[in-house]
Every structure is written in C-alpha cells, then in structure tokens.
Amino acid sequence: MECIELMIVVAIIGILAAIAIPAYQNYIAKSQVTRVLAEISPMKTAIETNLLNGVDETTATNLGYTDSTLLSAAPTVASSASAGTASITATLGNKAAAATSGAKVILSRAATGAWTCKITKSTNDGWKDSFSPTGCTVS
To answer: Which of 42, 50, 88, 90 could form a cystine bridge with 107, CB 3.0-4.6 A?
Structure first.
C-alpha cells in the first residue's frame, strides 16, 4: 500500500468516526433514560398493593427498589392511600451520560388509577427530547 492510499483510508475512517460517535452517544443517553424508567416501574405494583391496603409508603427500598448506578440518589416516593394518588421521582446523575444528568423520570398515579410518565429534561447541554422513552411526555 502506498502512502496516499493509506492517507485516504485514514481520512475515511475519520469521517465515519465523526458521524458514528455522536449517534452512539445519543443512543447511550436514550437507553439510560429508558433503563431508569424500567428500574422504577416495578415499584408501581407495590404502591398499588399498599394503596389497596390503606398504607402510605415513602421509602423506595420498602417498595422493592435496588440501587442504580444511573441515579444520583434513591427515588423519592409519595403516596396517599386516602386520595388514591402516588408518585415516584428518579433523578439521573452518578454514572449517567452528561446530557441526561439532572433529568427526572416521574411516574404519577391519578386517583382514577391511571399511571402517567413525565420526563423533566436536564438543564445540561446536549439534552434532546428524543431521549424520552415512548409513552413519556417531556417538560
């Protein structure tokens, strides 16, 4: 291989990397937000059980939560058995991508029993609304 051919190959690899790396970073950020949603969603079942039994629970670990490397702290939980409402809020941080750090994933239960998902976007540069999982609104 001659020097010019080698330089062309290096240039092509550089162009491909310039396109692929940002796309990969966006993929990682979206997968992390989706993972946090998946990690806190099982707590909904425990909350439903507690609400049926008239118990107000405010501790995530009592609802079956285990630590996550993507959260800055354990999720905050609020529930009211008398009102039939609840919420679970998880804040990304720790080992989360810089673009998602500070974003909040919020699951809210209305008195009707319907659960909704809302993402409070990160104030960091790089946040994109496309990081939000399907079915979650972004505010």
So the answer is: 88
